[in-house]
Amino acid sequence: MRLVFAGTPEVALPALDALVDSDHEVVAVVTRPDARAGRGRALRPSPVAERALELGLEVLRPPRPSDPDFVARLREIAPDCAPVVAYGGLIPADVLAIPRLGWVNLHFSVLPAWRGAAPVQHALIAGDEVTGASVFSLVPELDAGPVFGLLTERIRPDDTAGTLLARLADVGSGLLVDVIDHLALGDIEARTQPEDGLSFAPKLTTEDAHIDWTAPAFGVDRRIRGCTPAPGAWTTYEGERLKVGPVTVLDGAGGLAPGELGVSKNEVRVGTGTADVLLGDVQPHGKKPMAAADWARGVRPESGKRLG
User: Fold this and answer.
1) Partner residues linked to 7 by β-bridges
2) Sorting pLDDT into bands at 50, 70 and 90, what band is 74?
């Protein structure tokens, strides 16, 4: 089949590569316009645009999916299907109707759980033990289309949003290709999402990443991992913001009050609402990440000092 692939960030690259290597023809890529990034704030193409240019594919970067020039070009291409992975733009109904077999979206949750922009992050923060990926038919309502196929993936104790998302992107790319294969054969049918289990996963804000040390240790651990690498979990020390990387929950009842620091030569513990946790890496404002013990040697917190 002739495909137009839509995607923007790095997490979409495994699916693009898998489709290029499949029996189908990727004739063009749709991605978000170049954005300013880095210290110099120079315009840079999206990761998907960069990969598409390396592959010699036509790159379409409309300011919005309803842009008349883009719509006209998509009609000229006349794709059979438009697979989507993390494109980041709302496709209007008249554009959804252009591909003969519609737009098919790879989403990183087991729908209808965690519809929205940050399904992996919310699954971690909520304490889910299992998540997965779904391929569904794109409709105007947010992530509500009928599902062609899904897979499940156990959340590992050391997963962050970054590691889990990367793993789902890899295994999900195979699921997407499989669905496209069966759409070409005409032997697959989408099923309406069940009404039970619906939940939403909006984009995380900086405030969502603020650590509440009075929460149970499990909740503190999951919030930090769910916000790693972005937007980055944080707390404060002496009024200054301190980013916090993944922690280790210590066995037994906590000996420290919530947010209280316990500092020894080679480790830094923090109290929570239940057990203490062991800090890993931290990042003071304006500095590079460092081991918590190195940070403590620099700031020399007195006994009883607290985070937050």
Assistant:
1) 85
2) very high
